[in-house]
């Protein structure tokens, strides 16, 4: 990961953490961006940062376009990558040896690959079954993952910070969701008497 990309990814992490449900397209773009970094490192074996950036930006644009046009397909793809990456980072933060997994560099162990796939399956299942709730959880998870990753803390402290950020993100987004539903109900109640008149 390049030093100059850390603040940008941390900012995107904060945005996803606190407003991810409303910024679903941003989640898809960020997941596409991170997936693009991994794809360029693993499949294209590129170390040049400009090549990684091109693949990441293209993947991010594809992710955002999928989110806007094919929401359910994007939900499955985003759920898989966000769940897989998040579980690998969580495993690393509690000291499980999964190989070298950082933005732009992947040297995964067989255990790291299994953990990624399991996380991907969990993320996909959650997004497919419980879209709104899963969207809150997965955006909070991915936001907390990006922020924790950028902080580069010791493994035990990293897990504590991750879980705290995850809880804060879920609480903020649930409160915003509840407030939005209340406002819609009040607007509907005000509109009904006007229609009767």
How would you summarize the topology of this molecule?
Elements: H1 5-19, H2 24-42, H3 49-69, H4 71-93, E1 99-102, E2 105-108, H5 110-129, H6 131-151, H7 155-196
Antiparallel strand pairs: 1-2
Helix pairs in contact: 1-6, 1-7, 2-3, 2-4, 3-4, 4-5, 4-6, 5-6, 6-7
Describe this structure in words.
The protein is mostly helical and 197 residues long. The mean pLDDT is 78. The chain has helices at residues 5-19, 24-42, 49-69, 71-93, 110-129, 131-151, 155-196; strands at 99-102, 105-108. Helix 1 packs across helix 7 (155-196). A two-stranded antiparallel ribbon has the order 1-2. It is globular and about 65 Å long.
**Spans where pLDDT lies below 50 across 5 or more residues:** none
What letter string, H or E per element, gives the SSE order? HHHHEEHHH
Structural class of the helix and strand makeup? Answer: mainly alpha
Helix content: over 70%
| Oligomeric category | single chain
Q: What is the total tally of β strands?
A: 2
Mean pLDDT: 78
| Beta-strand share of residues | under 5%
- Rg result: 18 Å
Give the neighbour order of strands across the main sheet.
1-2
Total domain count: 1
Please tag this protein with its features.
single chain; 197 residues; mainly alpha; two-stranded antiparallel sheet; 2 strands; 82% helix
Concise account of the structure shown:
The protein is mainly alpha-helical and 197 residues long.
